[in-house]
Automatic annotation (TrEMBL):
Residues 1-16 form the signal peptide. SUPFAM superfamilies: Cupredoxins. Residues 193-204 have a biased composition (Pro residues). It comes from the Eukaryota. Residues 181-275 are annotated as: Disordered. Keywords: Signal. Residues 205-256 have a biased composition (Low complexity). The keyword Signal applies. This is Extracellular serine-rich protein. The keyword rRNA-binding does not apply.
Length: 275
């Protein structure tokens, strides 16, 4: 799409345009908006969990979204709401940018926002997108993010982006990054190694009694999440609740506990809604 190709050019041209006094209502307003200082919005990719953090941001035209790549080997790749884990042809793509234990610098991918329409991004590594590693720049609202995450989780696999496009890669010092890396040996890419069989999918669909309709992921929408969102390594998801009930009530020859469980559900990415 041309909005990507044009993004950098646009930024360049905006700053190159000599500021001349503009009167008039709306057009003057718009000129003012464009003339305003663009800001850099950091987004942390990966880390202790396979996430974008934050996973929804509001950016003005000319702002720079700087993806900072934490633990793992992730991408920031553009897709669409309809095909969340498939690269948009000609879309933005950072390529795979790893972060390994001991690194003192951080790989980045910076893109200039050239429009106000939602931009859908995902990580094309392995099953990350199916785990919900997606984000939206300028979502229409919280529901769109929920829809996007759900759509991603419902896909079978991800498409691989091709060339780096729509932005530039660079490095920054780890000390200047918006994150603290996961501690070494922290199984940088998944849940705890010896994850027990995990309790059966809690909360049966409870037909009508939908008293607890908790939305899939949305855990406590952090109010107005600051862009930098410098959250220290989130402590491991301590076994949720008292699901110690694995008592073999009946004498069935254990038919379940087999491949019934879907993809590992343990480290499900939390969704932070900055609304
Ligand atoms: C990152 O992932 C890509 C794609 O799977 C792979 O080609 C590359 O070697 C990986 N890099 C590292 C450092 O693991
Ligand atoms: C919810 O379930 C309880 C127990 O199963 C039942 O007594 C109650 O009537 C149900 N409520 C609704 C709204 O269905
Ligand atoms: C979990 O179970 C233990 C032992 O049955 C009990 O002491 C504890 O209070 C329970 N915790 C919760 C949160 O229910
Ligand atoms: C479980 O089944 C076995 C073999 O069918 C039987 O010997 C045993 O008594 C059963 N135990 C219970 C608790 O039903």
């Amino acid at each position: 799409m041309k909005l990507i190709v044009g993004s950098i050019l646009l930024a360049a041209s905006v700053s190159a345009v000599p500021t001349k006094p503009v009167m008039l209502g709306t057009s003057g307003l718009r000129a003012n908006l464009k003339a305003r200082q663009s800001k850099v919005i950091p987004v942390v990719v990966g880390g202790p969990q396979d996430t974008f953090n934050p996973n929804a941001i509001t950016a003005a035209v000319g702002d720079i979204v700087q993806f900072q790549f934490s633990n793992g080997n992730h991408t920031a790749t553009q897709s669409t709401l309809e095909a969340p884990c498939t690269p948009l042809e000609g879309g933005i793509n950072s390529g795979h940018i790893p972060f390994q234990d001991g690194q003192t610098d951080v790989g980045t991918f910076s893109m200039v926002v050239s429009g106000t329409d939602p931009i859908f991004m995902f990580c094309s590594t392995g099953p990350h997108c199916q785990e919900g590693q997606v984000m939206i720049i300028n979502p229409t609202g919280p529901q769109q993010l929920l829809d996007f995450v759900k759509g991603a989780q419902g896909t079978d696999k991800s498409g691989e982006g091709t060339a780096i496009a729509g932005g530039t890669t660079s490095k920054i010092q780890l000390t200047n990054a918006a994150f603290v890396p996961a501690p070494p040996e922290a199984a940088g890419g998944g849940g705890p190694p010896g994850a027990p069989p995990a309790a059966p999918p809690a909360a049966p669909p409870a037909a009508e009694n939908a008293t607890e309709t908790a939305p899939p992921a949305a855990e406590k929408p952090t109010e107005t999440a600051p862009p930098a969102a410098e959250r220290p390594t989130e402590s491991a998801p301590a076994a949720a609740e008292n699901t110690t009930t694995a008592a073999p009530a009946e004498n069935t020859t254990a038919p379940e506990g087999k491949g019934k469980g879907k993809k590992r559900d343990t480290n499900r990415s939390p969704v932070f809604l900055p609304f």
